[in-house]
Description:
Order of helices and strands: HHEHEHEHHHHEE
Structural class: alpha/beta
Strand content: 15-25%
Oligomer: single chain
Largest sheet: 5 strands, mixed
Radius of gyration: 17 Å
Amino acid sequence: LEEGNARYTGGKTTHPHGDAASREAVAQAQHPFAIVLGCSDSRVPPEVLFDQGVGDLFVVRTAGNVVDDVVLGSIEYAAEHLGSALVVVLGHERCGAVKATAAGGEAPGHLPSLVKAIQPSVDKAKGMQGDLVENAVDLNVEAMAKEIETSQPLLAKFVEEGKVKVIGGKYDLDTGKVEFKK
Length: 182
């Protein structure tokens, strides 16, 4: 992932596994090497910013890279059935879901479920020096990664056995660089 991101930021993408032969190879079975839980933000497509191709990543996206039971089930599926051994929780600077949570106010429809998940990180960031939203983005990545690696019964077991590693990362919208928090 680091090598792919370096290609992306350096303008030297290779767009691997995008040919007909690769498509045919994964049509019958997939073996993605990593799971990426990323934000649904249209500016943060994991396959592009990591310069990966068809079948390389198992991607789950929610606004604010929020974890819920469906997300956990998706990650469990990729880890248990597809053999993916790395989970990356990928946040990004200037996240709209985090910014809206920090701003407060009325959240109509199903938006309160996002606010509820992000609010603890915003609350914790209020006591920190620096930008509230950026601190909350970092704390939210940490919180969601912790939720994944302690999820019972499967993911916590996989982490304990060394079958799955969970890390965080933050995407810089301006430079395209991902900084991993291992």
